[in-house]
């Protein structure tokens, strides 16, 4: 690996390391069964990467610090308020409608930004769902929601980021996610 290590995140069976020399690079290794390393496994030898593999982050600005977050089989990068994601998407964990499933599992190998969401100040990732806090204190959730992990009062998966209702005289100041749950710290502004 070349450059200074800026961030490290571990998923269920994979690891992502972000380095920076003159530009950001991402090194991935571990399980790639669901494309979580940034490319579709085309052969059985590509389902496990034992040596760090470099993936340039050409869509990410070099002068902005980035945060990397990973769930069991998807990856999110937060850079300058924008969320980029790839990997397994069968629960909507990538924040966009599923593409045509491959072997019953929807995956996306290319890093893409999640469109039509406000600027994100904080991001947290559970096993297969995500929770985000916008600059103005709004909470967004998307992905696996079988146990109500996304906090919208339902149990259907959320394919695209959805705003959670909070009182008009309140603002969220912190969010977090565990394997199958999420939380938000809400501050009363009245």
Report the CATH architecture: 7 Propeller
* Mean pLDDT metric: 88
**Main sheet: strands, sense, barrel:** 4 strands, antiparallel
Give the overall shape: globular
How are the strands of the biggest sheet laid out side by side?
A: 1-2-3-4
Q: State the low-pLDDT regions, or none.
A: none
Q: Beta-strand level of the residues, as a percent range?
A: over 45%
Q: Looking at this structure, what is the CATH superfamily?
A: Regulator of chromosome condensation 1/beta-lactamase-inhibitor protein II
Order of helical and strand elements: EEEEEEEEEEEEEE
- Which structural class do you get from the secondary structure elements? mainly beta
CA radius of gyration = 16 Å
How far apart the termini lie comes to 51 Å
Looking at the structure, the CATH topology is Methylamine Dehydrogenase, Chain H
Domains counted in the coordinates: how many? 1
* Helical proportion, percent range: under 10%
Number of helices: 0
Mind explaining what this structure looks like?
This protein has no helices and 14 strands. It is an all-beta fold and 190 residues long. The protein has one domain (4-188): Regulator of chromosome condensation 1/beta-lactamase-inhibitor protein II (Methylamine Dehydrogenase, Chain H), CATH 2.130.10. A hairpin with a 4-residue loop joins strand 10 (129-134) and strand 11.
Short description:
The chain has 190 residues and is mainly β. It has a single domain, classed as Methylamine Dehydrogenase, Chain H (7 Propeller), CATH 2.130.10.30. The protein is built from no helices and 14 strands.
